[in-house]
Specification:
Structural class: mainly alpha
Distance between the termini: 39 Å
Number of strands: 0
Low-confidence stretches: 1-13
Radius of gyration: 20 Å
Largest sheet: none
Mean pLDDT: 80
């Protein structure tokens, strides 16, 4: 089995999906702002804990994406020595990322500085954004089917 690391065709007709990360970031920001605003009205500690979890989650995702982008770019370059160094660096950052997440969770549970439930909700905000994006895609597909008379 051969895995091709050729760059994706960025000139295709499906430009909508090329902006997936941007859409997820926008949905995450909208969901996060809505929950944080509601939290500020009803419970400021909840809102601060939620925002802390959301920021850590966003940082975690951005760091993971940057590492994987770097790894793919290095592997596409063809220099096997640089690829091995990059792989080691990416794996180290990957493990460090989880260690830092573990420390954040330890601080939440150990010192009760943050509201545990709110911080956990913030940590899962990107997953809520992915589910929201999936629901939007499903809704758009159903609308298109209905519009074109296929259903």
């Amino acid at each position: 089995m051969t895995v091709s690391l050729q760059p994706a065709d960025r000139t295709g007709d499906d430009a909508y999906y090329l902006h997936f990360e941007r859409r997820i970031a926008v949905i995450t920001a909208i969901l996060g702002a809505t929950v944080a605003f509601g939290g500020l009205i009803f419970s400021p500690p909840f809102a601060l804990s939620f925002l802390a979890g959301a920021l850590v989650s966003h940082w975690n995702f951005a760091w993971m994406k940057a590492g994987l982008d770097q790894l793919v770019a290095t592997l596409q370059g063809g220099d096997s020595m640089a690829a091995k160094r990059s792989q080691r660096r990416v794996i180290f950052k990957y493990l460090l990322r989880y260690a830092l997440m573990g420390i954040f969770l330890y601080v939440i549970f150990r010192f009760r500085f943050f509201d545990v439930k709110a911080a956990a909700c913030g940590l899962f905000l990107p997953i809520a954004a992915l589910f929201t994006e999936a629901a939007i895609q499903l809704f758009n597909t159903l609308l298109e089917d209905r519009k074109h008379g296929t259903r």
